[in-house]
Amino acid sequence: MTQFLEFAFLVIVVSASGVMAPGPLFAANVSYGLREGGKSGLKMAVGHTIVEFPLVILLGIGVFSLELFPDFRTIISVLGAITLFVFVGLQIRTTFREKDVTISKPKHGPLITGIALSALNPFFIIWWLTIGFKLISDAMLVWAFGGILIMFGLHIWMDFAWLGTVSTLAAKSKKILSNRNYKLLMMGLSLMLVYFGITFLIDVIYPQSNISI
User: Fold this and answer.
1) 213 and 128 in contact (C-beta within 8 Å)?
2) Is the pLDDT of residue 7 over 90?
3) Long-range contacts of 134-141, Cβ-Cβ distance < 8 Å, separation of 24 or more
4) How many other C-beta atoms can be found within 10 angstroms of the C-beta atom of residue 43?
5) Are 161 and 88 in contact (CB under 8 A)?
6) Residue 207: phi, psi to the nearest 5?
7) What residues contact residue 153 under an 8 Å CB cut-off, 6+ apart?
8) How many angstroms separate the CA atoms of 64 and 48, rounded?
9) Residue partners of 87: CB distance under 8 A and separation at least 6
10) DSSP of 55-124, one letter per residue?
11) Whole-prediction pTM value?
12) Which of 31, 21, 43 has the alpha carbon at shortest distance from 121?
């Protein structure tokens, strides 16, 4: 039990550095929270899990590695940037079509967005190939293949708790926003996503070791 508690503490502390780090998933989550309420964060977390769980399993059985996919970082960075730019365009169009802060939901749902912004985020995948892989390896040394599920369970609840909390807080803040301030906030979030898209492209030209979810 002591060994499990020590490992659980390690996973939670290390995972927090990625789960709570600002990124495209966070910015998009706030956007959906403003429009659709707190449940949107849970939907986005489900989309995130759909990508994250298979990736963790593949890492655990040794199928996925940088050596087998040497160009994955470049491909995902470019596709991720394109996805973000398209998402921003759709978000801005939706925002300026709204007459007030209470109507109109975006056509692209949080579940699909959670999948796309996870699968096409190079920093998310690199985090799992480095920091996350160490956690998986440590768990498997103690609990064999069952360690994969133990580690993932200790990690994934944080995604649901964080994204759900952020979207709920965003939904509450919507009630005190004027139409003008709402649109300014949505534009600010859109600019954040543009920034991350540019960062993805810069990472292709100038590879760096700075990684986060």
Assistant:
1) no
2) yes
3) 135/10, 135/11, 135/14, 135/15, 136/56, 136/59, 136/60, 138/7, 138/10, 139/7, 140/60
4) 21
5) no
6) -55, 140
7) none
8) 18
9) 28, 108, 113, 116, 117, 193
10) HHHHHHTT---TTT-TTHHHHHHHHHHHHHHHHHHHHHHHHHH-SSTTS---SS-HHHHHHHHHHT-HHH
11) 0.78
12) 21
Contact 83, 194 (CB under 8 A): no
Instruction: Summarize pLDDT for 29-65 with one digit per residue, the tens.
Output: 988 998 888 899 999 999 999 999 999 998 888 755 5
Token reading at 34: 């403003």
Give pLDDT tens digits for 62-83.
Answer: 755 555 566 766 777 788 788 8
Tokens at 199, concatenated: 């960062």
| AA letter at 170 | A
Do 20 and 160 contact (CB within 8 A), yes or no? no
Q: Name the nearest CA neighbour of 26 among 188, 180, 150.
A: 188
Confidence of residue 99 (pLDDT cuts 50, 70, 90): low
Task: Report d(CA 208, CA 8) in Å as an integer.
Answer: 30
The shares of helix, strand and coil residues in the chain, as percent rounded to the nearest 5, are 80, 0, 20
What gap in Å lies between CA 44 and CA 145, rounded to an integer? 28
Query: Scanning the structure block, which residue is given the tokens 């690199």?
Result: 126
Give me the residue label for tokens 């489900």. 46
